[in-house]
Write a structure and sequence with these properties.
- This protein has about 725 residues and is an alpha/beta fold.
- Strand 13 (about 370-375), helix 15 (about 380-385) and strand 14 form a beta-alpha-beta unit.
- The protein has 28 helices and 15 strands.
- Strands 6-5-15-14-13-12-11-7 form an 8-stranded parallel sheet, covered by helices on one side.
- Helix 11 (about 275-295) packs across helix 12 (about 315-330) and helix 12 packs parallel to helix 14.
């Protein structure tokens, strides 16, 4: 009798636990819907369905409600996003300040739709995103980013906020002083490259208030990500140590790595060999402290020698190194898995041969190292390295370097490559991801890639119609035609580094740098912009973004054309034509500044205000602003203009003034009959750049309610054919 009663009670407890878990999933999905819009939360219902071997969701009607049934809260969010895009014609911005636009009457669904996931893992973010976009994100910003990730099915986010606080405690426990540790760290916007062992010290020391605040922020981030069925990837020790550690442990096998990208010896990094007994001790200290503060999901990002030379490329050394790294993880966490970004296999492919790479990957048990194939739209490393020799991997779309705010991404081609990978990439292809470096870009390419993780069976025509309608907030034939052009003719080039338009480029005499040349079909770009300008209304955020991103790409490239004409007039000493072209160049820069001012996240004010609001004292606010300014201008080392942005305020107060120095020197040369003083002009430009980067409290021009640039529109139409022929020269 007692045994029977015990069995009944056990079953009841299991049933209650299952019901509570189901309610929790539903509650999390409903909370997400409510954050987007309380009105949306009143329209939808969520239900946890039966477990399957794959993630899934089903859309249906339940009376006057839309019912979303799925296996967990993450899949429920994907179903919600499907409803928003397909039926409500809206797209959710990844920026918290942008409200979700909904129709007055929220519609029912046409018919029941059931969709399964094609891959179990969907990865998002890049170390660099934490510098180029998110260094000054507060919890409000992060809430929307996490919601956007859930809506797009992301269940494996990179989660590296707050690790300096862990390292601070570790290094202090090993004998370093407060000043030594905080000075070892870089400034906030440069922390990604410190974390990847590229640079130390630059723009430091890191304020103590930063360290304390990041702990609280990371705890909130992880709690929300885990609640939405995500498995956050936390960092682990990869071997990067402070210079002072060699002094504290003189017998340790610590080597100084070569300087990175033009940074001097003061900013060099140091590497502790994983075979040294000290390595495992530091790994234990770090993981135990990190787990105390943040918990663990048993998957750790460890990236060895990112854009840095390894001490040796001997297969035996690399194999031992890799094995010892994994063993140091396993000694602390028996369930540990290692996530390794594969950027180095593309960037340093001459050094990481098949034999060397195989030695690294096969030193671990199968399934214990997952590779991120980082830049698949340009080069699929899984093809170069025999599907990563059996280790699991994730096909990733990068799409953006440096947070460069340009229209780019070979979207359609990337979709074709991904479809082929899903067919031929082997059973160890476990996921789809995006490794973008910055958010100041069109969301569409990244949402498109994550849609590929689900069995929508969409044709190109379906893709164009869905994105056009969701961006216009309604079916609009002009917008559909514009997006057909953008999808098939404009978004055709893969991401490249130092991508700006002619207007953003560092002024160079008689040449247009590769960095700032047009990458799109200019005639098609002009056609798309003119069509977008004809749409019924431009009230929702996505429609404004389309107009700004397309228009500024066109006008910025048109500036490059006019600059080439100015140079030709200078060579001919034709001052009349020089004045004409200089006038047009200035007008285009003004129009570009005004165009960008129509969206808050296209202004330098927003970037700087975020930085200043993060500080608690005037001195720290100024320090954060200096960091923010430097990153998008001079950067550091040899990376001037790497993070170039099309920002209102930055164009008028930075790019335009660099061009004025250039124009003034050309006129001086013709007027005096003396050669163009390029060295002096570059020196003056560099001095101006440095002064701008270190300023604080500067006011930037504001524009409100302007008409959409009739001068530039007419000029773009007039020169469409000439631009296309110029592009092919």
């Amino acid at each position: 009798m007692r045994k029977k009663l015990f069995t009944i009670l056990s079953c009841m407890m299991l049933a209650i636990a299952t019901l509570m878990a189901a309610n929790s999933q539903v509650d999390e999905a409903m909370a997400l819907a409510n954050r987007l819009s309380p009105r949306l939360a009143q329209k939808v219902q969520f239900k946890q369905g039966k477990k399957k071997s794959t993630d899934y969701f089903t859309l249906s009607n339940n009376g006057d409600k839309v019912l979303i049934t799925a296996n967990n809260a993450n899949s429920m969010a994907v179903g919600l996003n499907r409803y928003l895009k397909k039926y409500c014609h809206t797209t959710v911005s990844w920026y918290a300040d942008i409200a979700v636009d909904l129709p007055e009457v929220l519609p029912a669904v046409d018919a029941t739709e059931s969709v399964d996931a094609r891959v179990p893992e969907r990865f998002f973010l890049n170390y660099c995103t934490f510098g180029y976009t998110m260094p000054f994100f507060d919890w409000n910003d992060w809430e929307r980013v996490i919601d956007w990730m859930a809506l797009n099915g992301v269940n494996m986010p990179l989660a590296i906020t707050g690790q300096e606080s862990v390292w601070y405690n570790v290094w202090r426990s090993m004998g370093m002083t407060d000043e030594q540790v905080r000075s070892y760290f870089t400034g906030p916007v440069y922390l990604p490259w410190h974390r990847m062992a590229n640079i130390d010290v630059w723009c430091g020391p890191l304020p103590k208030e930063w360290l304390d605040g990041q702990v609280v922020l990371q705890q909130k981030i992880l709690a929300r990500e885990r609640a939405l069925n995500m498995r956050p990837v936390l960092p682990a020790f990869a071997g990067h140590v402070p210079k002072q550690l060699a002094e504290l442990f003189p017998k340790a096998d610590i080597k100084r790595l070569d300087p990175w990208d033009g940074f001097g010896e003061d900013y060099q990094t140091y590497f502790l060999n994983s075979e040294d007994p000290l390595y495992a001790k530091i790994q234990r200290k770090f993981l135990e402290e990190q787990t105390r503060l943040f918990g663990t999901d048993h998957i750790y990002g460890i990236d060895l020698f990112n854009e840095m030379e390894a001490p040796s490329y001997d297969c035996g050394y690399i194999s031992r190194l890799s094995r010892h790294v994994y063993e140091s993880l396993k000694a602390v966490d028996k369930k540990a898995e290692w996530l390794q970004m594969g950027w180095f296999l593309y960037y340093q492919r001459n050094k990481w041969t098949k034999d060397v790479t195989k030695a690294m990957l096969t030193a671990l048990p199968q399934g214990k190292m997952t590779m991120l194939d980082y830049f698949c739209e340009r080069m699929e490393v899984w093809r170069m390295h025999d599907k990563f020799y059996g280790q699991p991997y994730i096909w990733c779309y990068l799409g953006n370097f440096g947070g460069n705010s340009v229209l780019q991404g070979n979207v359609k081609k990337s979709g074709e490559l991904l479809e082929t990978a899903l067919k031929d990439g082997g059973a160890n292809l476990k996921g789809i991801g995006s490794t973008l470096e910055g958010f100041d870009v069109q969301q569409f390419p990244f949402e498109y890639i994550f849609d590929k993780a689900w069995n929508y069976g969409a044709t190109d025509a379906d893709v164009v119609k869905l994105v056009a309608d969701s961006h216009a907030d309604q079916p609009d034939e002009n917008v559909r035609k514009a997006w057909d052009v953008l999808y098939n003719k404009v978004l055709t080039s893969h991401a490249t580094t130092w991508r700006g338009t002619g207007a953003n480029g560092f002024p160079n005499f008689k040449k247009q740098t590769k960095r700032c040349r047009p990458y799109s079909d200019m005639k098609a770009l002009n056609e798309a912009w003119q069509l977008l300008l004809k749409q019924k209304s431009v009230t929702v955020d996505a429609a404004k973004v389309d107009l700004i991103w397309t228009g500024r790409e066109l006008l910025g490239n048109l500036f490059g054309y006019e600059k080439a004409e100015f140079d030709s007039a200078y060579v001919a000493a034709d001052t009349v034509k020089m004045h004409e072209k200089a006038y047009i160049m200035r007008a285009l820069l003004t129009d570009l500044d005004m165009l960008n001012a129509q969206h808050p996240f296209c202004t330098v004010d927003k970037w700087i205000d975020q930085a200043r609001e993060f500080g608690q004292t005037p001195d720290v606010k100024d320090y954060y602003e200096m960091n923010a300014r430097r990153l998008i201008t001079t950067w550091g080392g040899d990376l001037n203009d790497y993070a170039v942005r099309n920002y209102s305020g930055l164009i008028a107060n930075y790019h335009a003034k660099r061009w004025e120095i250039y124009i003034d020197e050309a006129f001086r040369s013709v007027r005096t009959g003396t050669p163009f003083r390029d060295k002096e002009r570059i020196k003056a430009t560099n001095e101006f750049q440095l002064s701008f980067a270190d300023k604080h409290g500067e006011q930037f021009p504001k524009y409100q309610g302007i008409e959409l640039l009739s001068f530039s529109r007419a000029l773009a139409s007039k020169y469409a054919t000439e631009l296309q022929s110029w592009l092919t020269k």
